[in-house]
Amino acid sequence: NTIAYLKKYKFDGLDIDWEYPVCWSGDCSKGPKSDKPNFGKLLTELKAAFIKESPNLSLSAAIPSGYAGGPADQAYDIPAMAAALDYLAVMTYDMAGVWDKKTGHHSTYQGCISGSKYYVDKGM
């Protein structure tokens, strides 16, 4: 069980980096649509278990930089994430990838700003 493992090895929490629910390898037609609500449920259940068994454990996630129509829109139940996560790490890279029709910049200053603002605007 996750909590026993975290306690045994004296970890202070769990960080989940699933790239990406629904959008496997950046292709949002590959994964089951049920990944989006199920990832939110996983986070909700983990957080509830942490609070019950070991309230000092933190729960975090690494998530892609957000933009309208991007993988985050299709992959993440943002309200569930906002309720369950103690903090998140926005991956302000991967601004271009296999999902693009042409080569683009991998990481940009503006992508960092707009990608983080996306989640703030969504309630994170």
Q: How do the helices and strands line up, and which of them pair or pack?
A:
Blueprint: H1 2-8, E1 13-16, H2 35-53, E2 58-64, H3 71-75, H4 78-84, E3 87-91, H5 109-121
Parallel strand pairs: 1-2, 2-3
Helix pairs in contact: 2-4
Compute the number of strand runs.
Answer: 3
The helix content, as a percent range, equals 40-55%
Beta-strand share of residues: 5-15%
CATH superfamily: Glycosidases
Question: Span between N and C termini?
Answer: 28 Å
Q: Please state the second-level CATH architecture.
A: Alpha-Beta Barrel
Oligomeric description of these chains: single chain
What is the radius of gyration?
15 Å
Under CATH at level 1, the class stands as: Alpha Beta
**Looking across the biggest beta sheet, what order are the strands in?**
1-2-3
Please count the helical segments.
Answer: 5
Structural class: alpha/beta
Describe the structure.
Strands 1-2-3 form a three-stranded parallel sheet. The mean pLDDT is 90. Helix content is 41%, strand content 13%. It has a single domain (2-121), classed as Glycosidases (TIM Barrel, Alpha-Beta Barrel), CATH 3.20.20. It has helices at residues 2-8, 35-53, 71-75, 78-84, 109-121, and strands at residues 13-16, 58-64, 87-91.
